[in-house]
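Question (not urgent): is this output format expected?
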Amino acid sequence: MECVVQGIIETQHVEALEILLQGLCGVPKQRVRVHELCLKSGPNIISSEVRVLCDLAQPTPAWSVRHIGGAMRGSGADQLSVLVRTVTESKVSNSVLRFFYAIGYKLDHEVLKTGFAFKFESRGAHLTVSVTSAHRMPRLHATDEAVPITPAIQLVELTAPAAADNYADVVAAITSFSEYLSPLLHLSKPGVSTGIVPTAAAAAASLMSSAASKAIL
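Got this back:
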């Protein structure tokens, strides 16, 4: 089970967001460079979709398979500001694509995600906040030729693993941390567009100015 919220930020304010996150998280950032391939089942298989991920930021590319299931339903779930959904992820070998193609899956689309992430603990929850730009490839698997899909906008995602007996605490931790980022961006359930925060430019300028002052001192 996973809890997740998302938002967008203008690329020009990403450096300010990084400064804020560094101060809040207190851990080094991690580089993100992930080649994501979305596979869909063929006509002879029960309809399903899986995502094959290749982590290119590692010295040796690391492969995994991720399946995102349904979201929690009911009146209680509707009242939450965080999406709670089932997620299954497993490490696999670099022959995973051949396996899925052999059993009838087909490539639907692929994307390269680049950026950075912070992984830390807050209020007992293990949070990951990532800031990434999505890139399309002009040719199949040509990650070195990838170009940004939306150069002026980047995706911010805050996630945490959860279980049936603690998801409420995890939701509370995510909601609380999201408030610290509210001057720069709004985080909400995936698919709920909140747009650009009007205060982002002023907040970014203040963060950059503060960081510059500390560097001089």
